[in-house]
Amino acid sequence: MKDDIRIVNARIWDGFSLKNLGFTVTGGRFSRIAADSHLPEAERTFDAMGMAIFPGFIDSHVHLRDFSTSYKEDFLSGTGAAVAGGFTTVLDMPNTSPPVTTAPVLVERKAKAREKILSNVGFYSSPATIDDVGALSGAGSIAFKVYLANRLEGTLDYSDTMQLMKLMSKIKSNKGLLVIHAEDATFFSKKENAGIDYRPVKAETVAIDKVIEAASRTRCSVHIAHISTEQGLKKVTRAKRDGTDISCESSPHHSFLDQENTSRTSLTYCVPPLRSKSDREAILKGVVNGAVEMIASDHAPHSLQEKQNEMVPGFPGLEVTLPLMLDMVSRGKLTLKRLCELMISYPCARFNLKDRGEIREGYWGDFTIINLKKKNRIRADKFHSKAKYSPFDGRDVVGSVYATFVKGRTAFLENRLVGTPGMGEVLEGNAIPS
C-alpha cells in the first residue's frame, strides 16, 4: 500500500532546529521521516518549496460560539479561522449559550461539532455542581474552566473559597486540569466601561492569591487564563517556585497592546482589560523568558453591531496570533524554539494531548507550513472568521501561514480553505500524567 502523502523539499522542525528532511503520512499519522531520496512512494507528493514545517500549532483558548450564537461564529467558520491561522488543534471554552455545564450538553456539543470542524477540537466544561465533575470527565471534557467574577448560569459560586477548594479536590481526584478566569468582582467599579478602572489590577491579583492558596492546599493542577498584570505574573512565578502546580497563558492583545497605544473604543474592549504599558511589557517579557508558558488567542468573535453598540468583550484572534509571533521571530525578539514551546509543546503537555506536538513517526500527521520571510499585512476584512475586525488590522508582519494539514489532509492552502467539513477530530479528555 502506498503512503497517502509525501512531503518533499522541506525544512522540518525537530524540536531544536529546522532540518532538511521530508516525511510521509499514512492513515492520518506520520509514517516515515527521512531525506527525500529515502522516502517511499505515495499517492500524492507535495512540494514544500523549501519552506519551514512545524507540528500543528495549538490554541488552548478559543470561543467557537455556535449553538444559539452561531451568528457570531459557528464550528465551520471558527475552525476555518483556526486552520487559516496555522492551528490544527483548538480548545473551546464552555461559556456558550447554553453553557457546557453538564455531561448531556457536552455530548450534544461534541456531536454537532463532528459534522463541521476543519481542525481538531477539544471541549472545556464548567461544572454546574461539584458532583458533575465525574460525569463531565467521563464525557470527554478536555479540561475544566471556572470564572471567578462572572459565574456561568446554573453553576455554583466558585468565587467562594470553600466551594473552589471542593471543586479542586474533585478535579484532582479525577486527574483533571482546572483553568481559571482569575478576577475578583468585589473590586470592580459600579459603572462598566472599557477602561482599566472598571476591572483594576487588584481584581486579578487578589483572585490569583485565592487560586494559589486553594491549589496549594488541594494539590490540584491549575492554569491561569489570559494573565494581564505584572503583579499577577509575579505571584504565579513565585507559586511555581514554591511547588504549586500552576501555569499561565497570555493573549496576543495583553502581550502587544496597552492603554497607552490603543484608543479606548468598543472594538478594543476585552476582559481582562488592556493594561498599562509597564504591565504589557512585563507580560511580553514573561512570554519571551518562559514565565508565561503559553500564548493563546482568546478568540472571542461578536457581530460588529454588538461590538459597536453593546460593549461586549473580546475580538477574533485565531488569524492574527501566529503572524504576530512569527514577526517577533523575524525581528530577533523570540527564538523559534521558544515559539514552538509557547504554541505547540507546552499546550500539548499541559493538556495531555496524545500523539501530537511533534513530527514523529506514529504521531498524528498535523502540521503547518510557514513562509518565514513573507511580508504580510493583517487584513481583518479577509478573515475567515465571521468577525471581520481586529485591533491589529493594518499591522505589517513578517511570517505567513502557507498551508495547514490535519491528519495528513489539506485544510488550508495559499489563503484558501480547502478542507472538508468534519475532517477534524473531536478530542477526548485525558487524565494528566502522574
Write up what this structure looks like:
With 434 residues, the protein is α/β, with parallel strands linked by helices. The chain has two domains: 108 residues, Urease, subunit C, domain 1 (Roll); 294 residues, Metal-dependent hydrolases (TIM Barrel, Alpha-Beta Barrel), CATH 3.20.20. 28% of the residues lie in helices and 23% in strands. The protein has eleven helices and 19 strands. α4 crosses α5 and α5 packs parallel to α6. The radius of gyration is 21 Å and the shape is globular. The relative contact order is 0.16.
SSE blueprint and pairings:
Elements: E1 3-8, E2 11-13, E3 18-19, E4 22-26, E5 29-34, E6 42-47, E7 52-55, E8 57-62, H1 75-84, E9 87-92, H2 103-114, E10 120-125, H3 132-138, E11 143-147, H4 161-173, E12 177-181, H5 201-218, E13 221-224, H6 230-241, E14 246-250, H7 252-256, H8 277-289, E15 294-295, H9 304-309, H10 321-330, H11 336-350, E16 367-377, E17 396-406, E18 409-413, E19 416-417
Parallel strand pairs: 1-6, 2-7, 8-9, 9-10, 10-11, 11-12, 12-13, 13-14, 14-15
Antiparallel strand pairs: 1-4, 2-3, 4-5, 7-16, 16-17, 17-18, 18-19
Helix pairs in contact: 4-5, 5-6
Structural class: alpha/beta
How would you state the average pLDDT, rounded? 95
Strand order of the largest sheet: 8-9-10-11-12-13-14-15
From the 3D coordinates, which CATH architecture of the largest domain would you assign? Alpha-Beta Barrel
Poorly predicted regions: none
What characteristic shape results from the CA principal axes?
A: globular
Could you give a short description of this structure?
Helix content is 28%, strand content 23%. The protein is an alpha/beta fold and 434 residues long.
